[in-house]
Amino acid sequence: MTTFADPIPAKRRSRSDAIQKAAIAIAVVLFAAALLAPLIVPYDPLAQSLLSRLRPPLGFERYAPLHLAGTDELGRDVLSRALYGLRLTLALAVAGAVIGLLIGGTLGLIAGLRRGWVEDTIMALVDMQIAIPFTLVALLILSLMGSSLTVLVLVLGIAGWEQYARIVRAEVRKLSALPFLEAARTAGAGPLYTARRHILPNLVSPLVVQFTLALSNIVILESTLSFLGLGVQPPQPSLGSMVGLGRDYMPTAPWIVLTPAALIVALTFSVQTLGDWLRDRADVRLRDR
């Protein structure tokens, strides 16, 4: 009896692959634009020109410079500010994700290797972090300690450490039951040597996936805080602060908000899709479907 393969899963897989490739391409372009922003911006992002304020995108005026994405309420070039804002937003997000990885990975490793009250205490902190809406915690910390970049990076760093801790603890407990670790402990290997030699190399794949997924969440958190006025402070541009400052001009000059908002959407979508792709590649069960 002849059987035919169902074309629907193949079409769905092909569509999903196309979306993932497009998202990866967008992510590469955005990271390159952020990295090369000082070289490719057409104007100084802080330069003001009241004679050019609220100029629409591609608005042509004789003997006046051309602004591809228009100008804001102070005559600053929106495209230049958006690219520098993308650069700062990505830098803050990467720094916060690295801090979260170090804190959560270390605590998760300790919880996985040390049982008893140490593990219970760390997991209680994880449950507390999950139970409390972190945006409210971030608003409280920034209100009390100020909105400097140092404080902001620390706040972003503790935003998602509990996810790393849970992943590392689960992986360590699973690896600890494998025969090769039992053999290493029987041979006299200490906890530090076991963690460095046998456990940490096996944690790279899940941590890279979680790092990528957490990056988009931190971008949204930083944009939210800056939108509310508690993140990056003017005149230094970030994507969230540009949206926050431009919301009063939405009826008359929507381009002030649309350009940074589009970059936020493109960045979070591409990074989140990249994280899903990495997860599918790392998980053998998902890869073989």
TrEMBL record:
Keyword line: Cell membrane, Membrane, Transmembrane, Transmembrane helix, Transport
Pfam (any one): BPD_transp_1
InterPro entries named in the record: BP-dependent_transpt_permease, MetI-like, MetI-like_sf
Gene that this sequence comes from: gsiD
Similarity comment: Belongs to the binding-protein-dependent transport system permease family.
Superkingdom of the organism of origin: Bacteria
GO biological-process terms attached to the record: transmembrane transport
Protein name according to UniProt: Peptide ABC transporter permease
Transmembrane segments: 22-41, 88-110, 252-271
Protein location: Cell membrane
Domain ABC transmembrane type-1 intervals: 86-275
Membrane topology according to the record: Multi-pass membrane protein
GO cellular component, one term: plasma membrane
SUPFAM superfamilies in alphabetical order: MetI-like (SSF161098)
Main location: membrane
